[in-house]
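REQUEST ID: PR-0412
SUBMITTED BY: lab tech R.K.
PRIORITY: routine
TASK: structure prediction, single protein chain
INPUT:
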Amino acid sequence: MIAIKLFKEQNLKGYTLIEGFPGIGLVGPMAASYMIEKLGMDYIGYVASDFFPPIAAVHEGTPMHTARISKDAKNKLGIIFSEFTIPTNAVYQLGDETISFIRKYGLQRVISIGGMPSSKQDEVPYVITSDPALLKKASAQGIKQIKEGVIAGVSAVLLTSAVELGIPTMNLLVQVNPEIMNPKYAETAIQGLHKLIGLEIDLSELQKETKEVEAKVRELLKKAKDSKERYQKQAGETDSSGPSMYA
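STATUS: complete
OUTPUT:
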């Protein structure tokens, strides 16, 4: 069972949803956390599932769900992300639930943020999209299209489902060194969002704050992994989480 739950009803019609679940380079969680902090976004809901590890995040003394949703009314922006790797057996359901959420609340489009392994790291992100208008805008801003490759994880489910349902969807991918978690990756992603949707955000404190976010996410990922392994050992199960990559 997976369900996106809001603390109270929200008007999200016409919003852009940013998806930032963990993948290579932790680009999604780092960028999402920084945007939530700098934009002063409201914590409006969470993702509930018995597939998820039994852990909670604590930020500035406040307990929070480790998979949650935030909203910025000024920029008509929503962000959904998690501080743990989504288990493989939850990916399809979470993707489908997110699509249902988008349709129910009338969100305008969804942009997934992720990383892709590369021996070099360009300062401009790459895109995969099902929407000609988004592709045209990306091309005009010097953001290159990926024409061949493989996408995995929730972002893949969103991308393929959106094609069928006519929901404008884009994967915004940053080249990363898989061995290094660099705040520059989050900066590249946020600058890409500025070019695509006009998002204005101060990046002057990004390096400091994303390093703190990275440390917190790494700690939560480890706790989630340890918790899962304990449960599997008790139940005699084997690992089914699969790779945490998105591209």
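NOTES: The first strand starts at residue 2 and ends at 6.
REVIEWED BY: pending
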